Amino acid sequence: xxxxxxxxxxxxxxxxxxxxxxxxxxxxxxxxxxxxxGAGKTTMMxxxxxxxxxxxxxxxxxxxxxxxxxxxxxxxxxRELGVVFQDFRLFxxxxxxxxxxxxxxxxxxxxKLIKRRVPAILNTVNLPDKGKNFPSELSGGEQQRVAxxxxxxxxxxxxxxxEPTGNIDPKMSIEIMNLLMKxxxxxxxxxxxxxxxxxxxxxxxxxxMLRDGKIIxxxxxxxxx
Length: 225
Hints:
Strand content: 25-35%
Strand order of the largest sheet: 6-7-8-3-9-10
């Protein structure tokens, strides 16, 4: 469960990025966060990732109260999350296998389990034969699938995808979204930040629309203006 309770975020320059946001996302939900540039989407994600703190209000994610979370506990909290970015953020000098394995190595996963789990994850994202390739040898869509595989590496409860289709063509965008839907059906909570109206309309999931730091619409079925 994710809950924003009257969350406000003000920056020192006077910008009000979020202005009293209330939002509840249940376990296993699929939610699109939409809005124009400057609406507050990025700030919302930064707060959810605990890259920044709210100015006031509370953010609850599972057993964690991010408002009161001490800095030393942040890495443990982030293990609950799998994050996919628009720019992939893959290690160029590591193979596909090594990129995914690295996410498991940093949390101390035994080598035996890594060897068993990585191929299974690559199969989930339809890249069973790409483990030995480097990112430069892959298309943009394939690189994004590797990023998604890495996000799944530690079996997180929540997947956050920040403009995951922003750097890939429309056909690959559908493939990435289909994978996110598949992951959601496995019981993961999935939050997708996007500005692509066509995708939101096509998938007809819950849509939360931000404008000027406020939620102005929250409904199921896509079709936002």
